[in-house]
Every structure is written in structure tokens, then in C-alpha cells.
Design goal:
Elements (H helix, E strand, L loop, with lengths): L4 H17 L2 E3 L5 E3 L10 E4 L2 E4 H9 L8 E4 L12 E4 L1 H24 L2
Antiparallel strand pairs: 1-2, 3-4, 5-6
Helix pairs in contact: 1-2
Amino acid sequence: MFCSRVCYDKHRWTDAMDRLSKKYVVSNSGCWIWTGAKMAKGYGKMWLLGKLIGAHRASWELHRGQVPKGLHVLHSCDTPECINPNHLFLGTNHDNIVDRNNKRSRRKKTSRIATSAP
């Protein structure tokens, strides 16, 4: 039993942080690679305060605070399974689409350069 709702919520938050910290490994690039359950496109998933959400979103909320309504948690590292809060940033749906398209374009240019090299 808990003395109050505040104590209960604090316990749940601490428990979530503890679970998050046991479910990743650090890569050479500094990404925190999620080792827990994953969604279809490789994004991690975990329960946070009764809701199943992306592990990167959970990491943001546990380290930085609540995500404002209408915003998404985006990856600067372009690694879906990364949960390092220093590799995450907030953006609108439009920002997410532009970011995805820019990264896709960079990958195509890089692969064309690599395949045309002698």
C-alpha cells in the first residue's frame, strides 16, 4: 500500500525508469539500442503508466518530461531502436515527414556514391 496517490505515481515512474534502464545496450555511435519488445518497423515498445507506447517516447518522457499534445518524438540518429534522449527531439507530424524524406534522400546519395566507387 501507498500513503497517497503521489507516492503511488512516484513508485510507478521509478519502476518504469528501472525497466527502461535494463532494456538497452550502448552502441559505438552512442545509440541506446532497445533490446525489449519491438513494433513492426523496429521501434521499441514498452508500458508506461498503463499505456503501451514507443520506447523512444517513454525514454523522452522519463528523461525530459511529457510530450506536448500534437508533437512526436523524432530521432536525430535515424535509428528506430535508439532510446538515447540525447538522440531524440520533438517535432510536428510535418517535421517528422520532412526529416524522414531528408534522411531517405541522404541514404540514396550515399548508396549511389558507394556503388559507383572503383
